[in-house]
């Protein structure tokens, strides 16, 4: 799994998100926008990409905004 640190415009669909990570990742990326109460993920299913979307009804994510914050998680 790959976390895209920082902010990503979650209004983008599958093609827009895939284009953002196209040359950088060859894995399953997950994204969070400026609001940390929702996230999106792309998952390669062998014959196509599955777009995952999660909106938290109560609470929010502590999403890493820098590569150092992401490294501290693992």
What is this structure's SSE topology?
Blueprint: E1 2-3, H1 14-21, E2 29-32, E3 38-44, E4 49-55, H2 67-73
Parallel strand pairs: 1-2
Antiparallel strand pairs: 2-3, 3-4
Percent of residues in beta strands: 25-35%
Q: List segments where confidence is low: pLDDT < 50 over at least 5 consecutive residues.
A: none
Helix content: 10-25%
- Give a short account of the largest sheet: 4 strands, mixed
Task: Encode the helix/strand succession as letters.
Answer: EHEEEH
Q: Number of helical segments?
A: 2
Number of domains: 1
Rg, Å, rounded: 12 Å
The N- and C-terminal alpha carbons lie at a distance of 11 Å
Q: Biggest sheet, strands in spatial order?
A: 1-2-3-4
Basic shape:
globular
Q: Give the structural class.
A: alpha+beta
Topology, number of strands: 4
Name the average pLDDT. 79
Description:
By secondary structure, the chain is α+β, with helices and mostly antiparallel strands. It has one domain (2-73). 20% of the residues lie in helices and 27% in strands. It has two helices and four strands. A four-stranded mixed beta sheet has the order 1-2-3-4, covered by helices on one side. The termini are close together.
Question: What descriptors fit this protein?
Answer:
alpha+beta; 2 helices; 74 residues; 27% strand
In short:
The protein has helices spanning 14-21, 67-73, and strands at 2-3, 29-32, 38-44, 49-55. The protein is α+β, with helices and mostly antiparallel strands.
């Amino acid at each position: 799994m790959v976390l895209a640190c920082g902010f990503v415009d979650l209004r983008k669909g599958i093609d827009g998100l895939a284009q953002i990570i196209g040359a950088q990742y060859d894995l399953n990326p997950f994204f969070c926008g400026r609001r940390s109460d929702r996230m999106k993920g792309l998952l390669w299913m062998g014959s196509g990409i599955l777009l995952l979307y999660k909106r938290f009804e109560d609470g929010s994510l502590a999403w890493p905004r820098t590569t150092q914050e992401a490294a501290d998680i693992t």
